[in-house]
# Entry
Amino acid sequence: MEAAARVSALWVYRSAAGPGLSVSLRSRRIKKRPKQSKRGVPGDCPAPAGPGKGEQLGAPLPGRGAAGGKLGRSRKGKQREGYLAPMQSQTSGLQGIPRPQLAGVAPMGAVRGASSPRPQEPITGPSLHGLLQELGRVQHSRQRAAKLFEWLIAPISPQQFFEQSWEKKPLLIQRHNPGYYQGLFSTATFDAILRDNDVQFGVNLDVTSYVDGTRETHNPAGRALPAVVWDFYRNGCSLRMLNPQAFSTTVWHFLSILQEQFGSMAGANTYLTPAGTQGFAPHYDDIEAFVIQLEGKKHWRVYGPRNDAEVLPQFSSCNFAQEVIGEPILETILEAGDLLYFPRGFIHQGDCLPDAHSLHITVSSYQRNSWGDLLEKLLPTALQMATEEDVEYRQGLPIDYLEYMGVLNSDVVDSRRGAFIERVQNLIKKLVDYAPIDAAVDQKAKLFLHDCLPPMLTEHERALSIHGVPARWEDGDVRDADIPIKKGTQVRLLRQGIIRLCNEGNGLLLYYTTENSRVYHKEEPKYLEIDPEFTDGIEFLLSSYPKYVCVETLPCDTLDDKISLATFLFEKGLLITKKPLVPI
# Structure
């Protein structure tokens, strides 16, 4: 009776969740509900709702108030020609880190189905745990990122990758080494997250299915409790965790380093799929995707962009019907330790074989980071400046221009049309002279810093930062709360990419990442108001990185200003000292 009561309660829970999942009390298998398809008919795809569909970066949450603070004087597959990159042995290695052995590099010929050729010997390399420890001893954060990326795609060199594959074509790396990515994430980790954290359906976790051409999401409301989540999984649903970095310190550490490699947000989703099922319809994404197989295996098909408009798209696609996507350019089975990269715009789908479940993590980057996205920031400002400074942009349009311009007059032969079009073209060319390119780049950088994960500090870095100051309540009083920064204290920035100085109106704002949330855009952008006399000191710290400099060498007007600047940045977690501070 107890078992029957539990099943009955779950059935009521499913029914209350609304359209989506139907569970048979006898078979406990997914049934497709009629007329609930979320896939449009071929050729009838709705416009994308925005970036991040498909294997999206994660759902943003409402902000919790603007950042503030001020610094002043008072201290305010089947290979198709031209697509699949060949794997070649590389002789250059990770400096200071063991180079993966190249014996048994996966052949990159035709890869179709379960008979895909695989290497006879594994491609080995340092463990992730050991690698992260080794990277903690690398002083420059950009070098850390470069070395981590080199490990991620080994044995392909970064130079070969960016020249031959990046934004061009898929890359398949088969290692025959199930433990290569061990420690990054696991099903056991996922289970522990469900038990120990407030995981919410639709915010942190999606329950999905793709059956008979129908893609459905089955999210109930509220917390994703283990009994409910695993019952969905047992009945054939895929489980997508949208922001594992919010719960897993290892994924957070991994992505917080990797984001400096791209100069763009590095996000991740995990996908846990039962044997013999598929969770998502064919679609393309608006991100560069690195599919890292962690457990089990998965059958993947990747298709080239169908037309020029779908090459490097700004937004993700709708779900496609099988009959409109053509034949795959790559078809393969990923096993644990393998990696598959494909650029944005490449349609893809993955399904599990009958004999194994699959767990993979998709690391993504370069969402809305194109030349067009930069020009979206640049051109409106350039036009505003040109209109303010050049009277030609403020002169009135010809009185009779509506008589010969417009779509209805596009075929009319009229000399006035030629003169009008030439005038517009000349004004557009002149905009280049007013384009504040550097300011527009700063605005892109500001957006990147808002997207960034906060840096994860090593134990050594914590001891050298504000987190290592032993302030506490003891014996009825506050102890060791003073920040003993003096003129001889040696300091440097925690990371190269954690701050950006931007002109905002009539003031200067210093944007930073150390107080960001691990949940995408949960917080508003963090910034400090900076008085002009401190800008030289901040630029000096940036240019000196990763070297330590004495506080007395900061180019500020007075020693008090130098100590004030260093103390303020130290308190915000932006500076570390060469040696742990000794309380006064």
Observations:
- The longest strand covers residues 288-303.
- Residues 292 and 339 are 5 Å apart (CA to CA).
- Residues 1-67, 73-117 have pLDDT under 50 and may be disordered.
